[in-house]
Write a structure and sequence with these properties.
Distance between the termini: 15 Å
Strand content: over 45%
Radius of gyration: 29 Å
Shape: elongated
Order of helices and strands: EEEEEEEEEEEEEEEEEEEE
Oligomer: single chain
Largest sheet: 5 strands, antiparallel
């Protein structure tokens, strides 16, 4: 199974507004977009989930900072930007990160978050259910410091520090390929000085489900000649040939469970006798599975 891959990221900041518009990253239809948006607000916020997006939750991590995370699949013709509204006038920062190669039905298998106030931002552990998923971490931090990238992860989208000296905001997204299933463990970004309120999102972006190799079921009329003692079934794909002897004239079916979904096959069936006589071939083709 191929893994999801980072495609592009965009960021935005603004002061004293009730919404923030983030430029649309470069995408192709079906790419996954993950948005992490944070606002500093003294009076509370009223968040509105934009049309087409799904909320991954969020809350206030203190008196000032509130954060939300959202996801959606990209359209064939995306807008120039996406707007996220949070009601009361606030400083805000946000990033949108795009990933290709995701499951189109369930692009995100699980997500969670934690909030706190510390000298670090931490994203909690989650469970990876499908190998070759991406473990994506989104941090928002209220404090006048830049946070480092957690060990083993790659930084994808990070806003500059924005806001006033007391309630600065930073939003960052990192990711890490998880080749195997199981718990990820938490990811912590420890700040060099000071402490502040944070959100830490943990999101698992999964690849398409592995293609299940098919079986090919063949059937044919029983040979009318009583001298027939069985059949010879020859399967070919390219230069590869497999011959399967089938005993008994009354045998009229065979199931091939050794096929691969991405390969086309041709089957030739001949009646055989004890004297090695063979009939002319009946041919059937099995196309590549979509």
């Amino acid at each position: 199974t191929t893994a999801p891959a980072f495609r592009d990221a965009e960021i935005a900041t603004r002061a004293s507004g009730t919404s923030i518009s983030i430029p649309a990253p470069a995408t192709q239809a079906g790419d996954l977009l993950i948005a992490v948006v944070s606002a500093n607000n003294f009076n509370g916020t009223t968040w509105s989930t934009p049309a087409g997006w799904t909320s991954m939750g969020g809350e206030a991590s203190g008196w000032y900072q509130e954060t939300r995370a959202y996801y959606r699949l990209a359209a064939a013709t995306p807008p120039a930007s996406y707007t996220f509204s949070y009601g009361d006038s606030s400083d805000a920062a946000g990033t949108i990160v795009a990933y290709s190669g995701v499951d189109q039905t369930n692009p995100i298998s699980t997500h969670t978050y934690e909030v706190g106030e510390a000298t670090y931002a931490r994203a909690p552990t989650v469970n990876v259910a499908r190998a070759n998923s991406l473990f994506v971490v989104g941090y928002t931090y209220e404090g006048h410091v830049n946070g480092p990238t957690p060990t083993g992860m790659t930084k994808r989208g990070a806003t500059p520090i924005t806001g006033n000296s007391a309630q600065d905001l930073q939003v960052r997204v990192h990711d890490e390929l998880r080749g195997a299933t199981g718990a990820t463990g938490s990811r912590t970004s420890t700040y060099p000085s000071g402490d502040g309120r944070y959100h830490g999102y943990s999101i698992v972006v999964q690849p398409p489900a592995p293609t299940k190799d098919p079986t090919v079921s063949l059937s044919w009329p029983i040979a009318s000649d009583t001298a027939v003692t069985g059949y010879s079934l020859v399967r070919t794909n390219g230069a590869t040939t497999v011959t399967v002897p089938i005993s008994g004239r009354a045998t009229a079916a065979h199931t091939d469970s050794t096929t691969t979904a991405t390969v086309a096959y041709t089957y030739e069936l001949r009646s055989t006798t004890a004297t090695a006589w063979r009939s002319t071939a009946r041919t059937a083709n099995a196309a590549i599975c979509p």
